[in-house]
Amino acid sequence: HLLVYVSGLKHAGITNSMLHNTLEGMWETGVEYTVLFQEHPSEIKETQNPEMRRELLSSPRVKVLQSRESVPSLMLAAYFSVVTGGSTGVMEAALLRLPVVYYLDDEVKKYMKKQVNEEVWGPVAAGACEVATPDSMGLVFDELLSGDGRAKLKANQEAAFPLQPEGLNTLDEIFKFLK
Hints:
By secondary structure, this protein is α/β, with parallel strands linked by helices. It is 49% helix and 15% strand. The chain has helices at residues 12-29, 50-57, 71-77, 89-96, 106-116, 122-125, 137-145, 147-160, 170-178; strands spanning 2-7, 33-38, 62-64, 80-83, 100-103, 130-132. The chain has a six-stranded parallel β-sheet with strand order 3-2-1-4-5-6, with helices on both faces. Helix 1 (12-29) crosses helix 7 (137-145) and helix 7 crosses helix 8 (147-160). The longest helix has 18 residues, at 12-29. The chain is globular. 34% of the residues are buried.
């Protein structure tokens, strides 16, 4: 039985779409799963479709997290996570070498163009995560369920976000800063 963590975005409509497509994609994999869903604390309710959200949250496969646990601690508990938008969870997962899926559709591209003037956010383009569209969610999930898929993502994360960039001594840099 897998735990899949879904982190909400400020834009509630995009969050609904991401949650819906996560449920559909996991269903396609045929594995037993539970989705842990956490709404963004600053979700913009005007972008919400309350009926759709109620329907999504009524699924026996979804558990709503009421706590304000930090995203990295929830990602550690999950088999993989699904995020979108300019989520710092992408970078946190990459640095922790955790499997994360970035949900991308036309609405996300418009949202990101407005937020950061890029349709695809920099860390995503750099390889910090797997990218899934509504049509490819199940395939991406299947890939992460395989050892090869997880290993490939980890290698991409290590290349994009090295823990100790070559030629940089972190302790020396900290000491220089403190002097």
